[in-house]
């Protein structure tokens, strides 16, 4: 009996696990190559239905290296979508299954989706999230382009002497395409905390003072892994709530989910239109 490669095994090559997952994906979907990948965070799930025709929808736990979602409101499937545009056919890989660093499964698990996307042939990845906003003018439901990040997790998906330049991690070209769809899109710096607790008002003020505009618990580690794997990265946050201390109202995960659901149709259309231009 052949054992499935285990991402938690330090002797295992995480890129070999990503390749194994991509091979199973190709077999299950009948699609040899996916051109673009999307990681859908809180509020963004509806975009998958607007991209095109679903070829296959696979429970993530059935692919090597993935596990079932650990958080209510987060998806647990991986979808292959056929996009027909201007006489050309492409395929999008929609990763509804995201492992957060706070789940305690290790950074390899966090990076696995991006690495599998690259192994599946993607050249571009779109990373989305729901987050807290530090700008009082960004009401719940505001989409914001990520132009840079600050990683406060104390971790990296890169192992050993692996040096990767992150100067232009969040693609200027792709942000330009997004603004062709919606010229009013704001942009800002995303700060990833470890979670799962929300940030304190003092931590939010610290994030603001060091240059942050958005705070959340995902994306930065995935973006680093994506860049290392050769992917061009577009990051978009959905402000689901003002960050702690920006608003006097206590933070609630239920309210984050509700804000995402309310903004869902509008931001899903935005994301589908952006992907159509990539």
UniProtKB/TrEMBL annotation:
Top EC category: transferase
CDD domains documented for this protein: PNP-EcPNPII_like (cd09009)
Pathways per UniProt: Purine metabolism; purine nucleoside salvage
Residue ranges constituting the Nucleoside phosphorylase domain according to the UniProt record: 36-275
EC annotation from Swiss-Prot or TrEMBL: 2.4.2.1
Keyword Zinc-finger attributed: no
Catalytic activity from the UniProt record: a purine 2'-deoxy-D-ribonucleoside + phosphate = a purine nucleobase + 2-deoxy-alpha-D-ribose 1-phosphate
Family matches, as InterPro entries: Nucleoside_phosphorylase_d, Nucleoside_phosphorylase_sf, PUNP, Purine_phosphorylase
Keyword Hydrolase belongs to the record: no
Source organism, top-level taxon: Bacteria
Pfam families: PNP_UDP_1 (PF01048)
Keyword annotations: Glycosyltransferase, Transferase
Subunit architecture: Homotrimer.
PANTHER family reported in the protein's UniProt record: METHYLTHIOADENOSINE/PURINE NUCLEOSIDE PHOSPHORYLASE, PURINE NUCLEOSIDE PHOSPHORYLASE-RELATED
Family: Belongs to the PNP/MTAP phosphorylase family.
Protein's job: The purine nucleoside phosphorylases catalyze the phosphorolytic breakdown of the N-glycosidic bond in the beta-(deoxy)ribonucleoside molecules, with the formation of the corresponding free purine bases and pentose-1-phosphate. Cleaves guanosine, inosine, 2'-deoxyguanosine and 2'-deoxyinosine.
Protein name as annotated: Purine nucleoside phosphorylase
Organism: Georgenia halophila
